[in-house]
Design goal:
This protein is an alpha/beta fold. It is built from 16 helices and 15 strands. A 7-stranded parallel β-sheet has the order 7-8-9-10-11-12-13. Helix 13 packs across helix 14. The longest helix is centred in the first third of the chain and has 16 residues, at 121-136. The mean pLDDT is 98. Bound molecules: N-(iminomethyl)-L-glutamic acid and zinc ion.
Length: 402
């Protein structure tokens, strides 16, 4: 079965090779067509629908079904490459304290670990499904989900198993923080937890995960040093996982350069960078994923995306949706913050939320609208994609259900 989607006033494909794309600075590298149509086909029990044809509406082929979007804009579905959706509990009071000056240091993660361990599978499943649905309703069609609020073998496996029910992009984050039960044991407790993360826990979690991640942040007493992070990432790679890193969130530190050295797909946060960090990223295949909702919700300074883009670094943006540093699932909000606060042009921010975010997940089947790629489309209830940052806070974007 095929479906013709027509009545598209602006079609953002993010396909830079597309013939006939508008060549205006405002829409640079977006592969933008006006008065366009898309044909999608396939899809069934085992396979997602794919794009079969893209072009001017006047040349569209016939299809089994047609829908008319009546002059709206269409973009590739957002790729949210960084989230922590498997959690229970509430930390809104911590947010309120930060708004009046209390700094974030990662200590609140223990609160969520306790609440998450205390929730049964059905409760957690409902929470995850609700959050994924909330994302789709705002245009997100792919989401990466980390564990990291279990921090025992059984609880980490459970988090990844539940995350796998809704996405292939699952990330083992046993190295989120050293949990309270091990911190109480001092240096020996910490060493025992590292052994667990790199040993029994990794072995149990690897079958449920594609990625391994670590909160590399020597400035936080709860997180991991550069050397500890190296050991964790190397163990993960030996177990067949691909690498991503939480780095340079609270201070300058080793995370970015470690991620580049080990060939991680992405290093996320990048709030505090030295010139050497920027240079390392610029010569690498590692994406810098910025998480502007975190700076919004922690009152930290926003990272300077312009500095990274100017050096030639690939910059993605994601929500980091989690109960501590950013409880927002809204990619449209992240696009707006990236433009308003981090020096990205609207076009750079939209690319960062789609095609560059796909690169951060080492995927080339999503993040663009092109023949043969997945038919993951989002509709903007406005004539131009520019309304996403322009009409901040207005729920204009939704995933197209096909
Ligand atoms: N920094 C580490 N992890 C999360 C926050 C987790 C939490 O505070 O619950 C982040 O990406 O910001
Ligand atoms: Zn995170």
């Amino acid at each position: 079965m095929s479906m013709l989607i027509t009545g598209i006033h602006e079609l953002v494909t993010c396909d830079e090779t597309l013939d006939g794309a508008v060549e205006e600075e405002l829409h640079a590298r977006l592969g933008l067509l006006r008065d366009a149509a898309v044909v999608i086909a396939g899809g069934g029990e085992d396979s997602a629908p794919v794009v079969e044809w893209v072009g001017p509406a006047s040349q569209a082929p016939a299809a089994d079904w047609a829908i008319d979007l009546e002059g709206r804009a269409v973009i590739p579905g957002f790729v949210d490459s960084h989230s922590h959706l498997v959690f229970a509990g509430d930390r809104s009071a911590e947010f309120a304290a930060r708004m009046s000056g209390t700094p974030y240091d990662g200590g609140g993660i223990a609160t969520t670990v306790a609440a998450t361990r205390g929730a049964d599978d059905a409760e957690l499943r409902t929470l995850i499904q609700h959050r994924v649905q909330e994302m789709r309703a705002q245009g997100t069609t792919t989401v990466e989900i980390k564990s990291g609020y279990g921090l025992s073998v059984a609880d980490e496996v459970r988090a990844l198993r539940l995350a796998r029910e809704v996405t292939e992009e699952t990330t083992y984050l046993g190295a989120h923080v050293v949990p309270p039960d091990h911190r109480d044991g001092g240096e020996a407790g910490r060493a025992a937890y590292l052994d667990l993360v790199c040993g029994e826990m990794l072995e149990a979690c690897a079958p449920h995960a594609r990625w391994i991640d670590v909160f590399c942040e020597p400035a936080s007493p709860y997180a991991f040093t550069g050397e500890e992070s190296r050991r964790i990432l190397e163990a993960g790679r030996a177990a067949g996982l691909e690498l991503r890193v939480h780095g340079n969130q609270l201070s300058e530190g080793p995370g970015v350069q470690l991620a580049v050295e080990l060939g991680a797909a992405s290093v996320d946060h990048c709030t505090f960078l030295t010139d050497a960090d920027v240079d390392a990223l610029a010569g690498s295949d590692t994406v810098a994923t910025l998480l502007p909702g975190v700076e919004f919700s922690t009152r930290q300074p926003y990272p300077d995306a312009r500095r990274l883009l100017g050096a030639g670094v690939d910059v993605a943006i994601a929500t980091d949706c989690n109960p501590g540093t950013c409880y927002s699932s809204s990619m449209p909000l992240m696009v707006a913050l990236a433009v308003r606060e981090m020096g990205m042009t609207p076009a750079e921010a939209l690319r960062g939320a789609t095609v560059v975010a796909a690169k951060a997940l080492r995927r080339n089947d999503i993040g663009t609208i092109a023949v043969g790629r997945r038919a993951d489309l989002a509709v903007v209830d406005a004539p131009s994609w520019l309304h996403i940052p322009y009409r901040v806070g207005v729920p204009l974007v939704r995933a197209l259900e096909v």
